[in-house]
Write a structure and sequence with these properties.
about 250 residues, mainly alpha, disordered C terminus, about 60% helix, single chain
């Protein structure tokens, strides 16, 4: 009878929904983050291949050292646009390869971060300032992590380059792979440098618009942190050499 079948029609979809949420929670891990076992040690190795391919340099066939792998791991959150992943993407696919700044692409839009920050739902303007402050502070921490590794990697590459001049029976293929890896590491450092300059520009635009729309004493803390990140970016601990001449930093908005 229709009356007896109604509960079944409601129970089945509900059970399916609960099962789906349970699976999503498992794949997302704690606090809806991607679980560690969904990742792999070389998940960021594409960064080097993308950097070399974008400037017409042959990628190295050498395996990554532990430090080189760490360099790529620390580079990814800095080359990814800030605050670009809404919470739901942490479950339903939070990983996307990114084109290097040396490829033909639309001009960098320094307003994108600020417009997202202002347009997305917030209970108060203070929470927008707090989000900006958290994002800048996170980048300062990432800066230290990345460049401490970059200093070590570039130093090892200099020693590798000096050693090659004294090696016996060095094959052309080995030499080419060593040179390619040094170029690859250098390009990654330069890629991050360009992205940091863009992040500083984006943060400043966002702060200016927040102050314009809703002045708040929190603006002073945000300005101080942006200034700290800008100073670090202007004086990195290591400069990759030789530099790759990239496209000018163009903006819109």
């Amino acid at each position: 009878m229709p009356e007896s079948s109604s509960p079944i029609r409601f129970v089945l979809p509900l059970s399916m929904l609960l099962a789906t949420l349970a699976l999503a929670g498992c794949s997302g891990g704690d606090f809806w983050r991607t679980r560690d076992d969904m990742r792999n040690d070389d998940m960021h190795s594409w960064i080097g291949r993308e950097a070399t391919a974008s400037v017409g340099v042959r990628p190295s066939q050498f395996q990554l050292t532990e430090s080189e792998r760490q360099l790529r791991d620390y580079a990814y959150p800095l080359i990814e646009p800030p605050h670009s992943r809404p919470a739901w993407k942490s479950v339903f696919g939070d990983y996307t390869p990114i084109a290097s700044p040396w490829r033909q692409a639309p001009p960098f839009d320094r307003t994108a971060y600020g417009r997202t920050l202002i347009d997305e739902p917030h209970r108060t303007h203070s929470s927008r300032y707090a989000q900006l402050i958290d994002d800048v502070r996170d980048d300062i921490t990432r800066f230290e992590q990345f460049y401490s590794t970059a200093v070590h990697v570039i130093d090892m590459d200099r020693k590798r380059n000096a050693t090659m001049a004294h090696m016996s029976e060095l094959s052309p293929r080995e030499r080419a792979d060593a040179v390619a890896r040094m170029q690859e590491n250098s390009l990654i450092v330069q890629w991050v440098q360009q992205c940091l300059e863009r992040r500083v520009s984006s943060y400043r635009w966002a702060l200016e618009r927040l102050v314009l729309q809703a002045p708040d004493p929190m603006a002073a803390d945000a300005d101080r942190l942006i200034g700290e990140l800008a100073a670090q970016t202007a004086n990195p601990p290591v400069a990759a050499s030789p530099p790759v001449i990239g496209r000018p930093l163009t903006t819109r908005g």
